[in-house]
Fold each of these.
Amino acid sequence: MIKVCVLGVGKVGIHLIHECINNPFVDLIQIYNRSVKGMELFKEMLPCTQSILELKKADLYIIALPDSILPTLDLNHLNGLVVHTSGTVPYASLKAKKRGVLYPPQSFTKEKKISFKQIPLCLETEFSTDYDLLDEFARKLSRVVYKVDQAKRQKLHLAAVFANNFGNRVMGIAYEICQENDLDFSILQPIIQETFLKAQIFPPHVSQTGPALRGDEKTIQKHFSQLKGTDLEVYKILTKSIQEKHGTEL
Amino acid sequence: MIKVCVLGVGKVGIHLIHECINNPFVDLIQIYNRSVKGMELFKEMLPCTQSILELKKADLYIIALPDSILPTLDLNHLNGLVVHTSGTVPYASLKAKKRGVLYPPQSFTKEKKISFKQIPLCLETEFSTDYDLLDEFARKLSRVVYKVDQAKRQKLHLAAVFANNFGNRVMGIAYEICQENDLDFSILQPIIQETFLKAQIFPPHVSQTGPALRGDEKTIQKHFSQLKGTDLEVYKILTKSIQEKHGTEL
C-alpha cells in the first residue's frame, strides 16, 4: 500500500484526508498542519504533527496548503515524492528532492462531501521515474487521471475559474435579485439545471440564448435601467462578450 | 379540453407546439406564423395559417413571437384569452380583449427536447375572471405554476439572464480556453456539474471559491497576463463582483 502524508487541512486537504482514510488501497500515515486548528477532528484517528521535521517516512507527501506557503517549506530531508495540489504554482517552487503536482480541477466546499472517483486528477512529476508512483496513487482515488504539464495546467485552472468561480458568481447575482424582489430562487432551479445539462451535451456557444444573442436592444436597455454598480458592469461586459462571440452588433 | 392556438414557431413556440400535441389534456387546434418557414413540419398534422384573421375560435391563444412584434398585432377580433410568453413585455402591449402572460423562465434550444413538467410557468391575466382558465391550462403542462405580476416577472427574467445566459457564456469562455490550449473540455465537466449541484443545495455565496474569494493577488495577476480583450474585462469585473460580495479588498 502506498504510504501517504497529507499536509494541510483546508478545503482540499480535508477532502483528501477523508478520501485517504476511507480508501482501502491507501495508507494515510500522518497529517500535518501549521496550527493545531483543523487537526483536532483527526487526533484520535491518526498521527498529527505541526512540525515538518517530524514528518514520517512516506512514499508520497501531498501538500494542500496555500500557494504562497509552498516556496517557504524546506522539504529537502524527505526521500518520498512531494507533490502540491495547486493549479498555478510550478513544481519547481517546492524545495524537495522529488517533486510533482497532483491538481484536482474541482471546487471543494467543507459542507459538501464529494466522491473522488469522478474528480479528474492532473499529474506531473519532475523526474519520469516518479511518475508511476503518482499515477498508481491517483488511480486508486479517481477514474479520470491525466498527465498535464505546467503550461496546460495553468490554462486548465484559468478555464476552471471561469466555469466554476464566475459561473457561481453570476448565479449569486441571480440569487440576490430574487432575494431583493421577494422571489423564490427555486423558480430558477430548472433553468440552472438545464444550463449545466446542456453544457454536458453541446459546446456552450450552441446553447447560448437571451437578449444579448438576439441583439434585443430594448430588453437590454430595460435591464440596464434595473441594475447599478458592479452588477450593471457585469451585465454590460457579458452582453458584450456574447455579442462579440456571436457576431451581433450592439 | 382547452382549445389552444400557438402563434410562432421559434424556440419557445416549437417546444410549446410539441408539448401541446403530445399532451392528452390539450387540444391544439391551429398554429400561426408570419412566414410558412418553420410550419412545414406540422402541415400534415394540424391546421397552419399565416393570417391573423384566419385564426380559429379557441379558448387560449399563446403568442411566442419576438417581443418587438407583440404590439404590432391586432387581435381585438378574438374572444379567447390572448397571452404572450415574454419575460419583459407587459400584457398591456397586446391589442386584445382578454390579455395575459404565460412566462416560462427556461432556455429552449431547438436541438434538445425538454419536459414541460419541470418548467415553472409564471402566469398573469388582466382580468381575474380569466386567471382560472390560464391556471388550468398551465397545470396540464407543468407541476410548477406561479402567479407572478409584471414587476416581479421582469426581475425574474433579469435573474434568469444572469443565471443562464451569463452562466452559459462564462462556460463558453472556459471552453474556448480549453480549445485554444488543446485541452479536452470534458476535464471540466465534473467541476461544472458540482457548480450547479451546489447551487441546488446552498445559496451561491456559500459555495464561492477561487482566487478572487481568497484575495490571492498573485494568481489573479497571473491570470490577467494570460487574458486579453473582453475575456480579460470579464475576468476583472467578476473578480471585483466576488470581492465586493465577500468583502476581500483588491
Note: The mean pLDDT of chain B is 95.
Amino acid sequence: MKKFNNTILETLPSRYRANLINSCTGYKSLNLIGTKSSNGQENVAIFNSIIHLGSNPALIGFTFRPLTVQRDTYRHIKETQCFTVNQVQHSFISKAHQTAAKYPTEISEFAATGLDTEYLDGHKAPFVKESTIKYSATYIREHFIAENGCVFIIGAIQNLYAPEAHIAPDGWINLTQAHAVAGIGIDGYAFGAKTTRFEYATPYKEPKIKP
Amino acid sequence: MKKFNNTILETLPSRYRANLINSCTGYKSLNLIGTKSSNGQENVAIFNSIIHLGSNPALIGFTFRPLTVQRDTYRHIKETQCFTVNQVQHSFISKAHQTAAKYPTEISEFAATGLDTEYLDGHKAPFVKESTIKYSATYIREHFIAENGCVFIIGAIQNLYAPEAHIAPDGWINLTQAHAVAGIGIDGYAFGAKTTRFEYATPYKEPKIKP
C-alpha cells in the first residue's frame, strides 16, 4: 500500500499528481457534449465529469476547468442555452478521445474526428449520431468553485433517447450491454464485462441479487 | 431507439424515472464514505456521485439528497469536518450495497454489514479496511442546489492510499486491475474487463493507444 500525504501530493510532478488524483475518485462517466454557437459553428468535446443530480426534475451537473482560456463548449452553451449529451460507446472511443485535441474555434470537432452530427426533434444543438444513449439539455445555472476557478454547470434533460433492447422493464439501462465505456483518470477507457443488480437494501436482511 | 420527451419523463412512474435518469448519465464512481460523530458514533454509507474537482489542490465533490430527513453522514461531516472515501471493490460489493439500508442512527453500518473499520495516520474518521484505494478528506464548503434541494459538498483530499502494484509509473491507477467497481443507475454494479489508455490528443493526428 503506497501512501501519499497532502504535503507529498503538493510536491509531486503535476502530470503524475493529475493522473493519481483523477484516478483515485473512481470510475467516471464518459460523454460527448455537442453544441452549436449562435452563428452556426458546431462543436463536440469529451467530458468525464457528468453526474446525475436528480430525477424529478431530471437534472445533471458537470464541471468546466477554469475559464481563463476560451472554452467553446461553455461559450456556445451560454449563447444558446442548449447542448446535447451523448454517451461514449466502444465503437467510437478513439474519435471521442480525439475531440479533446485543441482544434481552433472555427474547426468542428465533428468534421475533424469523423463523428457524425444528427439533429433531433428541433433541438438546436447537434447530437452525435454514433451514440445510442443521449439526451438534449438546457442550461439552468452555474456555481463557481472558488477553490480552483472551476465552474459547475447544472442542466435539465429535455428529450432522452436510448436503445429499447437495453432498457430493463423498470427503466434501468444496461450500459454494459449497450457497450458504453467508463473513464479512468484522464486518458483511460474501461469496458464493462459483467453487471449485477441488487434489490433495495433493507436493514438486517441479506442483500439479494436481482434475477 | 426509444424516445422519452420531457412531458413523458414527468409522467413516468417515479421508480421507472429514477432508474432511467440515473442510468442515462453513464457509469458512476462507487465509494463508501466513512464518518464518526463528535460523540463517537461510526457510520459508513455508499455514494455514487463522487467526482474529481481538481488536482492542485486535490479536491472532490459529491451530492447529498435533500436534507429533509436526517442524514447521518452529512451531520457527522458538519460536526467534525472529517470523512474518508473508500472505493468499492469486487470482494465486498454486497456489504457496500447493504450500507444503503436505513439503519437507526445509533447502529454502525460497519457492524451491521460486516465491514471493518480502520484508523490511519491520526484521521478522526474511520476507513473501510477492505478497500485498498482510499483517502482521508476534510470538508471545505457546500453549494445548495436550489432546483431540487440537493447539496453539493466540496472536500479536500488529505492522505491518499493506493496499491503500489496498480499505480502506473505516471501516477495513473489501474482501477480495473484493482477490482474497483463502477455503478449503473441506483443498484447496478459493473466490473471492468479491459482498459485502454490513449496518448494526449493532438489536432490532426491519429489518436495513439498507450503501450
Note: Chain A has a mean pLDDT of 95.
